[in-house]
């Protein structure tokens, strides 16, 4: 154009903003700004501020702030509202509040901008305070502002405040507005009031994808994954198309339910519809495969992701860690340190967990060093993981030093240290630490009691074990779980108090499982209680009819009592079912190489040398002749 006026400049800039070409819009504004033939008004300046906010370009936004001051446009409610919105979108929430507070005049747009900015930046309490101020200032509140306030209640789980806003929305007639109605249902769902949320959702004539997604997500968050899947099926039968967040939620539900087949179908569908490119969907698919043991599939998804965030890295590391693949977990952690974002507490704790479970002390120490580099060495989650790792790797001294270096008392680290001492048989240290922290006001949780009961178990402290066990309900209002009962039953069994152990098994508020009966079986066999041992073995076989260890033990017990026919029947059953008692296995780390071996293994390339060394070791051990009654005649 040979000549350009304010209208032509504004139209072109507006077109680029509407087309999401924010960089081009700002470039055009710069050219307009230096053109002496035209002037900048509050409308075009607001367009440029909108582009800066959407482009997250706070540097240019500050320049525009200066332009508004220079051109005396700062007092315009239109420009002021745009500045508030721009700073909020760029994450400069304090600057956004300052501009708002200094505005000489405010309208519903200004109030909505500051409330929306605060809520989207996570300052829900402050956003609700501004909403209350707006209400008192008698500014006309529109449906969108009500919806934002309800979102703040949902995100902060403030159901009481949400009910108040719900009442106000009814008085204003906004509760029937689809956007407000959907947000109301979301608020009640997120606050755990699923019946309220479902009732409101059912009243919406045409629920949109936001409402459906909110409902499904809420059920997932409340652990009602089966209902979440059912709601997704209802959604698919409606006229509404699910979006990326809907798919991410329902795939998460499949993960929690272990529904791999349905998850795979959803994976195929999101690939077909192009939704797989969404980060939330890719992360949920990868987590599905990790949790369901399909680590190769999870790795393929991870490696083909165009973008990866901290959730992606943490998920893949946790997947390999929890499956016991230490080498792969460490490789992903190293890759993350080189190319990914800063490691999170969760990622580091996951790798430390696998280091501990596989007793890989060297690599555990490397991760410990990395926690210092990223500044996460003093977070409770990481410290607890470090204490547990060192304890499981046999380095209780390092575990104790790590615990003593903690800057504040927290239940998680305390519990880890008590459990560490208990695992190493250091009963006195475990009990002293437990009692010491009780005196300073720390309140134990269920896991802490597992540690202190295990310590009593190691030392055979029956009376003290009873005292701690009874204090769970009497003093700390903790309902004992199967693990706590298991600790007490094991303690009684080791002390030879089989009658008390059997009474506790029969009086538990839930059915004794295979682990409890196995504990009782071992004790009965050790103390020659044959009839009780047979009873325990029969209980175990109800849970696991082909349990090789139990069948072998039962056959041996029958043989020891001269019940040869019963023993022969057990052996025959084992042969017909193909039941073989698996050989024990273990592994060792030598110069960063992991070597696994099983009992009687002759396949190792250095097998001859290994057995020669074993022969030398065995020759130096005094032979002990076992009693015939306790021999296991394994086939």
What does this structure look like?
- The protein is mostly helical.
- It has a domain at 545-630.
- The chain contains 35 helices and 2 strands.
- α9 packs antiparallel against α10 and α17 runs parallel beside α19 (310-322).
- The chain is elongated and about 110 Å long.
- The model is unreliable at 623-635 (pLDDT under 50).
Write the layout of secondary structure elements.
Layout lengths: L5 H13 L3 H13 L7 H13 L3 H13 L6 H13 L3 H10 L5 H13 L3 H13 L6 H13 L3 H14 L5 H13 L3 H10 L5 H13 L3 H12 L7 H14 L2 H14 L5 H13 L3 H10 L5 H13 L3 H14 L5 H13 L3 H13 L6 H13 L3 H9 L6 H13 L3 H13 L6 H14 L2 H13 L7 H13 L3 H10 L6 H13 L3 H14 L4 H13 L3 H14 L7 E6 L2 E6 L8 H13 L16
Helix pairs in contact: 1-2, 1-3, 2-3, 3-4, 3-5, 4-5, 5-6, 5-7, 6-7, 7-8, 7-9, 8-9, 9-10, 9-11, 10-11, 11-12, 11-13, 12-13, 13-14, 13-15, 14-15, 15-16, 15-17, 16-17, 17-18, 17-19, 18-19, 19-20, 19-21, 20-21, 21-22, 21-23, 22-23, 23-24, 23-25, 24-25, 25-26, 25-27, 26-27, 27-28, ...
